[in-house]
Every structure is written in structure tokens, then in C-alpha cells.
Amino acid sequence: MNKPIEKTIDRVNRTLGKRHRAEKRFRFYGIISVAFGLLCVLFLFTNIIGKGVRGFTYHYIEIPVELSADVLGISDVDNLNQILAANYSGVVKKGIYGHFDVQTRKEKSEARDLFSVDGTGYLLQDRFKIDAKTIINTQTTVWALVDDKVDFYLKRINEPGEQGKHEFSERQLQWIHNAVDSGELKRKINWAFFKTGDSAHSEEAGIRGAVMGSFYLLIVTLAISFPIGLATAIYLEEYAPKNKWTDLIEVNINNLAAVPSIIFGLLGLAIFLAFFGFPRSTPLVGGFVLSLMTLPTIIISSRASIKAVPPSIRQAAYGLGASKMQVTLHHVLPLAMPGMLTGTIIGLAQALGESAPLLMIGMAAFIPEVPTGFTDPATALPMQIFQWFRNADAGFSEKASAAILVLLMFLIVMNTLAVWARRRLERRW
Fold first, then answer.
1. Which domain holds residue 108?
2. pLDDT at 161 over 70
3. Closest Cα to residue 131, out of 70, 180, 67, 63?
4. What is the pTM of this model?
5. Is residue 31 part of a domain?
6. Is the confidence at residue 95, as pLDDT, over 80?
7. Residue 61 located in a structural domain
8. What is the pLDDT of residue 9?
9. How crowded is residue 254: how many other Cβ atoms within 10 Å of its Cβ?
């Protein structure tokens, strides 16, 4: 007896439940993957933001100081050299001793260890630069920076374990708690973090030098990579013949986009430093190295933008008698520019976050001065973060987390600008 032929609808119904279960499992796996990724990002940002917010603030104690010209060593308030070289540390120390009413050498040493004497001296120096004639030989108050150990302890004073408490004597702990209870000790925004360069002391360290170094780096990178990348993309798409040589160039450009960034650092070390003799640890050299790294990204994105311009634009221009150069410059390039700008901004954002190439050309050195030009020794924000995280001082760890937040802010702004430029300027066909 012949077996009845199974209908197609019966076979579909028989496997339908199995397919639905497989689809649900696949969807579940996707949800789990996304949730795990979001959890990792949330944990990372919670950790960084928690430490970074602490890095933006610092503790100060208000102490009276006597700005005596004799102690400061200033005889002429109009002499800038005397103001810069004045004995501000002596004035601060004298104010600390008077504030805590200490007499013995040990008491003075313990009181002095609670403060950043040099950092507070720089604050007084800034006031003298502005108005030395008015405040000389007067008694005033200054918000003195506490030592980084004190700041670390105060930021965790309400947490279990009282971290950092073992760093102080009983007398020092009593002074700290008395200052907290009396309101003399305040937690304020640490503006010096944005105004100063690097320092060996975490309470005095800032990101201005690194930010300016990154700024000069990006200027050099943009000035080199954008015109070269633009010209390369135009030539390959509009002028270059299609043969094995252009195919080889295209393959190599695509491969360069995947080369590890440290290779470009080695290339810069061999060419710009060893062969051409450029000054080491400068934004000029760093900009050349980062230009090599960002060129493939700019070329690839620019070529894609040129390809996206409809052929009818070219044909209409040729029909009106335009030359090849006129078609390219007056019609193709303006329509492709939004995509080119987007690729350029993304390439610069990538360069802003790079540290490996800069490590190879010496931009990881300790440089406390703020650079004022392209040939001044400088570091970059990623390298500054790297250096601070290497330091065992807990204060530097907080400063590094705060610097990460600043770097993330710049990257978010640059990527947002790229998206805005794309949507604002592009034309849909």
C-alpha cells in the first residue's frame, strides 16, 4: 500500500515550533550579550566617574598670613623678577605655625606636613602678580592646599576602614578633625587642575600642559593629513588609471588602516628623529607620526564620499563644457566634502586618544612646563593619564581618572561634531 504523500503545509507546521524555539533562543542570546556589554561599560564608567569626580575637587584650610616685605624679600613691587623669586614658602610656613600655635620643632614639622607649602606659595604668587602694591605688608587669609595624604583621607573619612588614617599622628588627626568641625576646612573645585602643568606632587599637578600638547598635536596632524588625504582620494578616484599599480596602492592603503599604531611610532622614530633629526618630545614630531596613522582613515572615507556622488552630476557638468578639473573642484568635491570632513574628524578623534606612537618618540617624559609652540617639549593627554596611573600616589590615580573624563568629553564632542556635520551638510539623492 502506497504511503500518503505529506503535504507541504503539514511539514511546515511540524517544524514551526522548533523554528520558533530556535528564534527565541537566538534572541535571548543577543539580549544577554547586549546586557553583558552594557554592564561592563556601566562598571567601567562608574569606577572612572567615581574617582574622577574626586579628582576635580580638593580640600583647603583657611589660614592667616602676614605678607611682610622683609620675609618675602621684595624691595620693589614693580620688579617682576623679585615677585617671582619671593619667599612665599616662608610666609606660608609662618602662617601655619601661627594658626596651630606650635612652638617645638616636632610640632612645626607635623603641622607643616599637613599642607602643600609650595602649592600654597604659588597661589600667593598669583595674587602678587595681579596686585602686589595693595597687598604687600598686609595681613590677610589664604586658602592653603592640604597635603595629598590629607585630601585622600578626608575624601574617604566616612567610608568603612578610614583609609589613610595610619599616615598621621594623634596630634595631626586632632588638628584635621578640629578644622573639619570648625568649618575652616573646605572642599572646593580644584581650578589648579585646569590651569597648571604636571608636577611631582599630586596636589599641584594639572592637565593644562597635556591639553595644550594635544592641541598642538591635532593642529599639526590636521595640517598634514587632511590636504594629503584629500588629494590622494581625488587622484585615485578621478584621475588614476585602473591597472595593477593602482590596485596595489589601494590594497596597501586598506592594509595600513589595520596596522597597529605602535608601528607608526617606530616608523616616526626611525625617520623623523633618527634620519631628519627633528627635536624629540615635541608636538611637531608627534603630529607627523599621527598624520601617518590617520592618513588611511581619511583616504578611505574620502574615496567613499567621492564614489557616492551620482555620475549624473559629472555628466551634466561635462555636457555644459566643464573640464575635468572644473567637474572635480566645482561639483564633485563640494558634494563629497561632508563625508570627507566626517572621516577627518573621526581620524583626529582616533589620534587624540593614541598613546603608543607617542611613547616611541619620547612624549612620555615628565614635562611640568606648559608648551607655547610646536617645537616646545610637551606631552599629550593620553600619555599624561598613563604617567599618573603608573604613580603609586593615590592622589595621582584620582587625577588620572579626572583626566580620563576630560579626554572622553573631547572625544564625545568630536564624534558628535562629525555626526552633526554629516547630517547638516550631506545631500540625499
1. 57-189
2. no
3. 67
4. 0.82
5. no
6. yes
7. yes
8. 67
9. 12
